[in-house]
């Protein structure tokens, strides 16, 4: 079982919810995971039924996530890693790198969101 904190990371330029650009520039792990799952691995051919079944398992786990933690069976996590690795990124942003690392380095314990490398000192 792998656990991933479903973080919502604001853009440092708009750190407060009252800032006009806050919501549009926030990186939300839940939305990124959903987006990664919905993009076919082969964009030319589209998703196979097997890929859809695996994706639905992750979307179901997102729906069932409690306390902003996504819990995935190892096979589902492996599939999510593949999807995230193939995800086309909109631009260069530290928050995307952090998201990528949080997915790729997930363990049975949630990574510490207060540390860039996910490891508490």
Topology:
Elements: E1 2-5, E2 8-9, H1 22-25, E3 27-28, H2 29-38, H3 49-64, E4 69-72, H4 74-86, H5 94-104
Helix pairs in contact: 2-3, 3-4
Describe, in plain words, how this protein is organized in 3D.
This protein is mostly helical and 121 residues long. It has one domain. 45% of the residues lie in helices and 10% in strands. The strands form two sheets. It has a two-stranded antiparallel ribbon with strand order 1-4. The radius of gyration is 15 Å and the shape is globular.
Strand-residue proportion: 5-15%
- What is the radius of gyration? 15 Å
Query: What global shape is seen?
Result: globular
Instruction: Let me know the average pLDDT.
Output: 91
Number of domains: 1
Please give the order of strands in the largest beta sheet: 1-4
Our count of helices gives 5
The poorly predicted ranges are none
Number of distinct beta strands: 4
Order of H and E elements: EEHEHHEHH
**Quaternary structure classification:** single chain
User: Which bin fits the share of residues in helices?
Assistant: 40-55%
* First-residue to last-residue Cα separation: 24 Å
The SS-based structural class is mainly alpha
> How would you characterize the largest beta sheet?
2 strands, antiparallel
């Amino acid at each position: 079982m792998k656990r991933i904190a479903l973080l919502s990371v604001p853009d440092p330029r708009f750190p407060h919810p009252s800032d006009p650009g806050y919501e549009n520039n926030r990186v939300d792990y839940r939305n990124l995971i959903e987006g990664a799952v919905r993009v076919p691995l082969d964009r030319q051919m589209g998703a196979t039924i097997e890929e859809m079944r695996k994706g639905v398992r992750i979307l179901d786990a997102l729906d069932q996530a409690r306390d902003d933690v996504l819990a995935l069976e190892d096979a589902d996590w492996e599939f999510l890693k593949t999807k995230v690795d193939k995800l086309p990124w909109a631009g260069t942003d530290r928050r995307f790198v952090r998201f990528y690392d949080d997915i790729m380095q997930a363990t049975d314990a949630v990574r510490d969101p207060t540390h860039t490398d996910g490891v508490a000192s």
